[in-house]
Design brief:
Blueprint (H helix, E strand, L loop, with lengths): L14 E6 L4 H5 L6 H4 L7 H12 L8 E4 L3 H14 L3 E3 L18 H11 L11 H18 L4 E6 L1 H11 L18 E3 L2
Parallel strand pairs: 1-4, 2-3, 2-4
Antiparallel strand pairs: 1-5
Length: 196
């Protein structure tokens, strides 16, 4: 696969809703939390995130999901659980939907993101500072959809993940260069984006 793009699997047999987790304690503290050693058990939803999800569920205007597949980080698991409880759906954890790993910048201020994104714009395959390459994120995120397409049909699947991985997936599925993943508007916490 070329380092700069990922071809979209079309047509799809399922409908997909992409959801970023609600506002988290990591967001509240302005920290990068991308390592499973921290993200699996700590830095769950903030009080504001809980409120966001309550409002989102009350005003839900997308097709109701028939399945929920989510990153196994605490903040995404809690987000998925709120939606799953509302719709009476059992959750399916999926490690491939985890946050992008930001290597040496773990637990550092979110201002470090800009440094990584500037490197991404020049080379989506870079591994500087131990950061997970954009191309690797695109591959694992795309693989989730491919595996769901291979095993299911006619479902409405809510994928609950994180900001960077979802931005990268959307860029890939749009057939745009992965180096441009920050060109699209940032996904807000607790936002839902249907795949066309």
């Amino acid at each position: 696969m070329p380092h700069d793009t990922l071809n979209a699997p079309t047509p799809r047999g399922n409908r997909y809703l992409l959801m970023r987790h609600g506002h988290s304690q990591a967001n509240e503290r302005g920290l990068i939390i991308s390592d499973p050693r921290h993200g699996l058990s700590d830095y769950g939803l903030s009080r504001g995130g809980e409120d966001q999800l309550a409002q989102l569920i009350e005003g839900w205007h997308w097709p109701p999901p028939s399945r929920i597949v989510h990153s196994d980080f605490l903040r995404t698991t809690q987000t998925a659980a709120r939606v799953g409880e509302h719709f009476g759906i059992t959750l399916q954890p999926e490690p491939r939907l985890r946050e992008r790993h930001f290597g040496d910048f773990e637990a550092e201020p979110v201002s470090r993101y800009e440094q990584v994104w500037a490197l991404d714009a020049h080379d989506p395959g870079h591994r500087r500072h131990g950061v997970e390459p954009v191309v690797a994120v695109a591959e694992r995120m795309g693989a989730v959809i491919k595996s769901l397409e291979a095993s299911l049909s006619g479902e409405t699947i809510l994928l609950v993940s994180h900001g960077d991985p979802l931005q990268i997936l959307l860029t890939a599925l749009e057939g745009r260069p992965l180096s441009h993943h920050r060109d699209r508007p940032a996904l807000a916490p607790a936002s839902v984006t249907p795949l066309p």
